[in-house]
Amino acid sequence: MASTSDIRKGLCIRYNNDIYKIIEFLHVKPGKGPAFVRTKLKSLSNGKVLDNTFSAGHKIEDVRVETRSYQYLYADGETYHFMNTDDYNQITLQENALDAPGLLKEGEIVTILFNTEDSMPLSVDMPASVILEVTYAEPGVKGNTATNATKPAKVETGAEVNVPLFINEGDKIKVDTSTGSYMERVKE
Taking CA 25 as the corner, what is the angle to CA 24 and CA 26, rounded to the nearest 5 degrees? Predict the structure, then answer.
């Protein structure tokens, strides 16, 4: 058993007969009244996100997890196939287990969390950023780069990312996987 002081991003807990992963948390100590922890929890069974508030000192049941490196192979509808990089065993996961399936490129190495009690896969942690090639972008207008204007661009995985006007087709860009936003252009 853990308490609210042990709450951190990525911690997996058992709550309401389900396993949740903490995506965000904030310790709050108001001037009047007891302290509490405001959290955003993501269900690892159905992918739904809920807001919850725990009072300070509240006991939470943490779930022991183990991480393993897997390589993303391909998607078959809503089923995603991964291969263990150590023993080459393959597993399949549903789309709701992934945080940003639209940014997942074939051959990408990801970390999969497993419940140590029953060896069931819980969720997929993607790298902090991925480098993707722009397959379609409207041409930028010359001289229109002084503002912070953006335009939608399609990347090689099929996802759409808002990019600055100077990004063209064929450019490689770095995308933040947690927000799905453009970070920078990558030079070869």
Answer: 140
- Distance CA(79)–CA(76), nearest Å, equals 5
Domain containing 83 equals 65-121
Reading the chain (188 residues) residue by residue, the pLDDT tens digits are 788 888 888 888 888 888 888 889 999 998 888 999 999 998 887 778 899 999 988 898 888 888 889 999 998 888 889 999 889 899 998 887 787 888 888 889 999 888 888 888 888 888 888 889 999 988 766 666 566 778 888 998 888 988 888 888 888 999 988 888 888 988 87
Residue burial 155-173, b: 16+ Cβ < 10 Å; e: rest: bebebebebbbebeeebeb
pTM to 2 decimal places: 0.74
Number of domains in the chain: 3
Coil, helix or strand for 100?
Answer: coil
SS3 101: helix
CATH of the domain at 160: 2.40.50.140
Phi, psi at residue 96, to the nearest 5°? -70, -10
